[in-house]
Write a structure and sequence with these properties.
With 354 residues, the chain is an alpha+beta fold. 34% of the residues lie in helices and 19% in strands. It has helices at residues 2-39, 84-98, 124-128, 150-153, 174-188, 192-201, 244-247, 253-260, 262-265, 271-278, 341-351; strands spanning 44-51, 54-65, 70-71, 79-80, 210-211, 225-228, 231-234, 249-251, 296-300, 303-312, 315-322, 327-333. The strands form three sheets. A seven-stranded antiparallel beta sheet has the order 3-2-1-12-11-10-9, sandwiched between helices. The chain has a three-stranded antiparallel beta sheet with strand order 4-8-5. Helix 2 packs across helix 6 and helix 2 crosses helix 10. The two termini are 37 Å apart.
Length: 354
C-alpha cells in the first residue's frame, strides 16, 4: 500500500512539475507577445502553438477591427495568410503526385498546353521551387482589385519572357504559383478551389480556411491595416482570388497549426511526397536554394525547421514547423510590413530550443 501511494505521489509530482514548466512557457510567451504587439503597433495578432500534435498555447491579442473593438479569437478570426498559401497549395500538388496525376519533373506544358511557349521548357518542380524563371509582381500589380478567375489571372504575366534559364537562380514568383493552381485544376479535372476544400482543408479539419473573394461576405474576417507616417489606417481593397495559390487564402492560426502537423504526422499525404516538398532544390551551379516546393528548409540550433512567411496588404504572417521537436507555430497579424524574425527567435527560445 505504501509503495503504491509513493508511486502515485511521484507520478503527481512529475505531472505537476511538467504542468508548471508549461505554465512558465505560456507566461513568458504571453509577455513577449504583448510587448511585441505594442512596440510594433499591431492592431491584432493570433498565435497558436502545438507540441506532439496537441495545442499547448493559442492566444489572440488586440483587435480584428479597431473601430468596433472586436477581439481576435485564434479559432475563429480569419487573417490573410498571404504567401503561406503556397505551402497549402504544395500539399495539393503532393496529393496529386500520390495518385499519379502529376509528375513533378514533367513539363508544365503537359498540364497547361495552351500557356504561351517560352525560350526554355520548365517543370512543375522548378515552378514550385521558384526556379522556372517566371517573373514576380511589377509596378502596382500587387494592388490589383479586378475580379478574375485563376485562368484569367494568367493574362497578367503569361506573355512575359522568362527572366533566365530555368534552374539558374532562385527568383521568387507568386505568379509561378498562380500557374501551378491551373496545373492542379487541369490534372485533377476539378475546380482548384473545390479540390483544395475536398482534398486538403476538409480532411485536415481546417474549417476556417477559404479563398478571399471580394464579392462575398466572410464571417470573422479581420480588417486589414497598413502603417502610414506612423499612423495605423485601413489598407486599400485588393483582389487576391485569381492568385489564391500564391497568396489568396484566409485562415486562422489554429487551422494553420492543424495544417503544419501534416508535415510531421503525414495523415493524408505519403512520406515520399512530403519528402519531395521538403528537399531543398539545387541550382545548375550546385548551390542550394534552401527551398523545396512551397516551403523553406533551414536549421535552428541544429534542429530542422520548415517555414514560410507571408506578406500582403494588411497581413504579416509565418508558419513554422519543427518536425524533430514535433512543434508547430503559427503567427498571423492584420498589419502590413511587420518584421517577425526577432519575435520568432523569442518564441523558439521558449518552445523549441531545450
Amino acid at each position: 500500500m505504501k509503495k503504491a501511494l509513493l508511486f502515485f505521489a511521484l507520478i503527481m509530482c512529475f505531472h505537476k512539475s511538467y504542468c508548471q514548466v508549461d505554465k512558465d512557457k505560456v507566461h513568458k510567451a504571453n509577455t513577449v507577445a504583448k510587448k511585441y504587439l505594442l512596440q510594433n503597433k499591431i492592431p491584432g495578432m493570433s498565435i497558436s502553438v502545438s507540441k506532439k500534435g496537441k495545442l499547448i498555447w493559442s492566444k489572440g491579442f488586440g483587435y480584428s477591427d479597431l473601430k468596433n473593438r472586436t477581439k481576435v479569437v485564434p479559432s475563429k478570426t480569419k487573417f490573410r495568410i498571404a504567401s503561406i498559401s503556397k505551402t497549402l497549395t504544395a500539399l495539393a500538388l503532393a496529393k496529386l503526385v500520390d495518385v499519379k496525376k502529376i509528375e513533378l519533373d514533367s513539363s508544365l506544358y503537359k498540364y497547361v498546353p495552351d500557356f504561351p511557349k517560352k525560350e526554355y521548357d520548365f517543370t512543375i518542380r522548378q515552378l514550385g521551387g521558384h526556379l522556372a524563371g517566371i517573373r514576380h509582381y511589377r509596378g502596382k500589380e500587387f494592388l490589383i482589385n479586378k475580379k478574375m478567375s485563376i485562368v484569367e489571372g494568367l493574362d497578367v504575366f503569361k506573355n512575359s519572357d522568362l527572366l533566365l534559364k530555368p534552374q539558374t537562380k532562385f527568383i521568387y514568383s507568386t505568379y509561378g504559383w498562380n500557374l501551378l493552381s491551373v496545373v492542379i485544376q487541369n490534372a485533377a479535372k476539378q475546380n482548384y478551389f473545390e479540390y483544395m476544400n475536398e482534398q486538403v482543408f476538409y480532411p485536415l479539419k481546417m474549417k476556417n480556411t477559404e479563398v478571399e473573394k471580394i464579392d462575398k461576405t466572410i464571417l470573422n474576417k479581420t480588417k486589414f491595416y497598413i502603417k502610414r507616417n506612423g499612423k495605423i489606417k485601413e489598407g486599400p481593397s485588393v483582389n487576391n482570388e485569381f492568385k489564391a495559390a500564391g497568396g489568396g487564402f484566409l485562415s486562422t492560426s489554429e487551422d494553420l497549426v492543424c495544417f503544419g502537423n501534416e508535415f510531421i504526422y503525414k495523415k493524408i499525404i505519403s512520406k515520399a511526397s512530403i519528402k519531395e516538398l521538403v528537399t531543398p532544390q539545387i541550382t545548375l551551379s550546385k548551390r542550394t536554394t534552401n527551398y523545396g516546393i512551397g516551403i523553406a528548409i533551414s536549421k535552428i540550433n541544429n534542429t530542422l525547421k520548415y517555414s514560410h512567411s507571408g506578406g500582403g496588404v494588411g497581413a504579416s504572417s509565418y508558419l513554422l514547423i519543427y518536425p524533430e521537436k514535433e512543434v508547430v507555430i503559427s503567427i498571423l497579424t492584420n498589419l502590413s510590413g511587420v518584421g517577425l524574425k526577432n519575435f520568432i527567435k523569442d518564441l523558439e527560445a521558449i518552445f523549441v530550443i531545450d
